[in-house]
Amino acid sequence: MDASQADLRELYQEVIFDHNRNPRNFRRLEDATHYALGHNPLCGDKLTVYLKVVDDIIQEASFLGEGCAISTASASLMTEAVKGLTLDEFEKLYGEVHQLLTENHPDHDMGKLEVLSGVREFPARVKCASLAWHTTHNAVNQLSETAQTE
Ligand code: ZN
User: Fold this and answer.
1) Distance between CA atoms of residues 12 and 91, nearest Å
2) CA of 56 to the centre of ligand 1 (A)
């Protein structure tokens, strides 16, 4: 690994650490229009995502739950990234985050979400990082069942 990769890895770890210690939008949304539960039994991560959607635009997003640093940081980053997106734009971003975590990098810069690409080195953690995004996808689509719930 060259120096710039080491710097990048350090930056990613700092962002994950910061969002885990001080998660953004970590609360229930009293006027949520959509919500869903998510559970990653491999790690024990559990969370609830709340969305306030008006005219197909995500006005607010928040979450509550308990999980490892990566699941918490990813959920925190998600609540910031989806605010202001239309539901269609969210679905596009959801697909891109999946790419970022598993396969090929999307052909454009993903901004703050780039930090999530760091988990590709730890395959067991991919489900931790993707949990908040799957859960939000279910909330957006108002699916009554999540992939894994209590
Ligand atoms: Zn986890």
Assistant:
1) 24
2) 30
